[in-house]
Structure prediction request, 457 residues.
Amino acid sequence: MEKEGKIYTVGTLRYNMARLLIVCFWVLWGIFWYDMIQYILVPTLMPLNFKALGASGEWMGVVLGSLPALANFFLNPIISTASDRTRTKMGRRMPFMLWSIPFVTFFGLLLGWLPLFRSSIASFFPSVNGNYLMLVLYSVVFLCFYIAGLLIGIISCYLAPDVIPGEFIGRFQVAKGLVATAAGFIFNMFLLKYAETHAQWLYTGIAALFAISFTGLCLFVKEGEYPPPEVPDNDLPWHKRTVENFRTYFKDCFSKPFYLLLFLGFALTNVSTSCRGMFNILFATRDLNLSTEQYGEIMAYGKIVSLGVLAVMMFCIDKFNALLLYFFTGVIVLFLNIWGYFWAVDYNSFLVIGLVLVLIYTMQSLASTPMLILLLPKEKYGQFCSAAMMITCICSVIGSWLAGKVVDIWGYRFIYVWDFVFTLAASMFLIMVYLRWKKIKAAESKSVSDSPQNMKG
Prediction:
């Protein structure tokens, strides 16, 4: 038990336990409603809206997957660097998040109420097919919504280390996962059934609660003071400094096969879930003839399973080799996709395969960050993580378009084939990573044992 009155510090911030709990509450409360609108409400309803307007799988793949990944590829390093170098009275993270709140709220509301303006908009374009016009408008508004939310998504990842003491970071990350899972459970169990009849009010209510909650986070969570940002070397012209920085970055991150194999294994694992992420609800409602309410129930049960996994893994995740856990969960996914392809034919079978996949993917997700910490250089961890994300974004741009294309050809059940193929490819890269890592560890051990201080006489 902690001593009463103990002070916890992070940078220049000092907390007692009560104040620390208040900070954690506001951060997690804001993240809850951000996840609800950014990762649950919009991605769940957009495929239904697009399909109702006659969109092809290819169109959905490009708009819902490829273009967001492309935006992430270009904006992530710019936003991250700008935030690191920002110094204001509010801090270096809060101004970016506070600025983006009205845009996320506005475009979220617009996605919900856009159908009400259909006739008015169509009057300006009488020669354009109404469904096609709405499809284009939905796509534009969705991309604006995603880019506005991307700002919060990127910056909020950097906020926790700045305001949460290091001894609580692990528990905070588990709590963050529990909050995200709880948001998914509540939406799928209680709200998704109203998607077809009260979509506008779903968007309105969740967007309003997001705006209030995240504004509270920005106002009530205080950042500490930061040292002045590093000043770039001014001896060289700006264009030469830029070229030199790029050269060093790419040489560090992409010149060694070990890291390239790791980046590809990590990226393809993420791509393996893209097809299911976009088309799972359409497979359930179109191919299996489930209602959106039934689909929501299954997803909600999956969140309960995920909560259980998070609670158990909280106590034992550090006891596993993260790379092996990440790899072996992928192997299990291969067999689950074979099972799903042939035997997911009704509510019960889809429920079973869905719950088991959630269990395995939750374990794999929990292993991903410890795996990167294990394998990437500690002194340049952020740099190498951004390189891994660059490869992931490139693969996602191509993969999301291709996923939509193949679904148009072979149907929604192809989600299982897609997952199998890309998980198999990822597993092959991860095997090579593991074998190279073992050689590196053996060489390091031999180097230590051969050092003069370890030699007798």
Observations:
- The chain has a mean pLDDT of 86.
- The first strand starts at residue 8 and ends at 10.
- The radius of gyration is 24 Å.
